[in-house]
Every structure is written in C-alpha cells, then in structure tokens.
Target: MFS transporter
Amino acid sequence: MVLAAFGLYFASLTPQIVTLAVRVTEIAPDRKTVALSTVILVGALMSIGSLPLFGALSDRTRSRWGRRRPWLVGGAATALIGLIVAGSVPTIAGVATGWALGSLGASAAFAGFLPLIPEFVPDRLRARLSGLIGFVVALSVLSGVLLGAQLVHQQLLMLALPGVVALAAALLLARVIRAVDRPATGDFPPFGVREFFGSYWLRTGGDRDFAWNWTSRFLVGLAYVGVQTYATFYLTDTVGMSIDDATAKYATFTAVSTPISVVCFLLSGYLSDRLGRRKAFVTVGAIILAAGLVVASVTQSVNGFLAAWLILSVGQAIYLTVDIAIAAEVVPDQAHAGKAMSVYQVATLLPNVGAPIIAVAVLAAGGSGNYPAFFMVLAVLGVLSAVTILFVRRIR
Model:
C-alpha cells in the first residue's frame, strides 16, 4: 500500500506542483497564471465530479477481479494516457484535456486504493500507515520537483514518467491483494441519478464527525495547495528568477524540507497510535502550517521563503500523518467505505479548484506581486482548519 501510494501521489501531485507550470510557461508565457489556474481547475472539477461516482461503483463492483482492483489498475492506466496527452499536445486546450483525463484516471485509482485502509488496516496501525503514506507523499513531491528540474526541456517525458510509475505500483498492489479483494456481496439499491447525487454526502450515523473532519481537511488543503502551486511563480514574479532557476530553486527547497517532513511523518504517526490521540496532532499541524504562511507573507527573499517553506512543511507533515487515520475511523458505514473515502478524497482535491480562484482574485486585486496578501489569506484558512477539527467528537 505504501508503494502504491507513492506511485499514485507521484502521478497526481507532480503535475500540480511543478510540471504543469513548466508546460504552461513553455506554451503561453504571457498568460501563464490564468492558463495554469484554468488547467488545474478543469482537472480538479473532473476529479471532484467523478470521485464519488467511482467510489460508490467500487463498493458495488462484482467482477471476478474483486471490487477494488479494477478501479485501481484501470484508473492508473487512464491517468498515464492523460499525462501523455498533456505532455504532447502543444496548446493550453490540449494540456487541459490531457490533465482532465489524467485526473479522471487518478480518481478511479484512488477510489480503489483508499477504501483498503478502513477495510484491511486495524485502527491501532492506521496512524503509522498514514505516516508512511505521508512520507511517500513527501518523497513523491521531492521526486516530482527534481524530475521537473531535470527534464524541464523534455516535457513529454517529464509528465508521462510519473504515470508509468503509478501504473507499475498499482499493478503490484493489485497482485498483492488478489486473495483478499473479493467481489461485492449483499444487496445494493439500483444506482441511478438520485444515488449519484447522493454520493456527495453520507446519511448514516456519524455524519457530523465525518463532515467536520472533511471541512478541516478542505481548509488546510486550500492553504498548502495554494503555496505549493504558486511557489514557482512567486520565485519568478517576486524574487525575479527565470523559470529554469525558479524550478531548480524549488527543487532545492523540497530537497531540504523532505528529510524534516519524513521525521515528522514517522514520529507523529507512531506517537498518535501509541497515545491513542488524533485531534491534538491535527490541530498543532494546522497552526504550524499557518505560521509558516505568515512568515512567507512578510518576506520577499529566497532565504526568507525557505524558512517559511520549512515551517509549513513541518505543519503539513504533522497534519497529514493523522488526518487519514481520522478519516478511516469516522467512516459511517464499512459497507460503503469506497464511497466514504472517495467523499473524503474530494476534500483533498477541491482545494485545486479553490486555491486558483483565491490566487486569481487576490493577485489580480493587487497585481502579480501581491503574494503577501495571498499568503496571509492562506494562513487564516490554516487557523480555521485547526478550529474545525475540534468539533469532531468521536475521537480523542
């Protein structure tokens, strides 16, 4: 599961964080901010619209290959095709189409992957698994940034290679779980239009805890997706770097912060399982992330942004380590774990819609260099995330 998580996050995060920015700058340098926001928005809308559908259908899948594996492998293959399109069609419309298809495939793959956590991982190990997943997320981000820096002028390979890794990892996990991933059993109501729209919320007991955790995850996602997505443009527009130098500097930042994040991921997961506590870690993580964004808002230097990056990386690592464990614990109905975890995953993807909207609104209001206001808005969202998680009652 950890290896599969690396592959899936490598393919889904690398384009958002760096390689789509490089691709868009190559095609449309004069309108790169709006073009990147548009591409990411299209992909995010595709993911958000398809995730609940794929999660609910995964719960109902009765194929001889089980109910999770077809979505896991088929989704990874579709994501690879989309990334090839995004890296080969030399127009913004082509990049947006490819990323939309890639996002659709990633949604299907995650619909097959995420339910495995509440289904097969006992609660006493979930935070540690979550920490290991957080570790490979950090590793996938570092790998993606380094990939973008090394292949900045080979953009088809830059975009397609993470998709190849994701497909290989999905195939490996599918083989490992073949003995336990069984077809769906039991009676499900016919899946129609009403059931599709009903996939966006959960009606069984425990909805309130699930909803508060979802809200907290969405808010903190807005905060760190915003800074991750626009860090490259911050370095070009505020610091004055070229796109090549900014991409290389971003890779350096990520390389420096990754070991720190890894320690936070592993230590937080172990302590959370050991102490039997979840909310304290998530609250502290969100506040530290917000503090890093405050630092980013008051500096316009490379070294100042590096300090801010390190602080928010610590907060992000602590938060994400425990958040997946919370989501698995507050799933209202194990029979619909695919649907529930897909709805949770929407909270991780919806910031890809919200963050570009916030960025365009704030940066347009004060010019392309209005990053202090942008980072301060993101910091406020981080604080609100820390507050909302306190309303989850079922966990300590």
Summary: The chain has one domain: 2-181+194-391. Residues 165 and 315 are 28 Å apart (CA to CA).
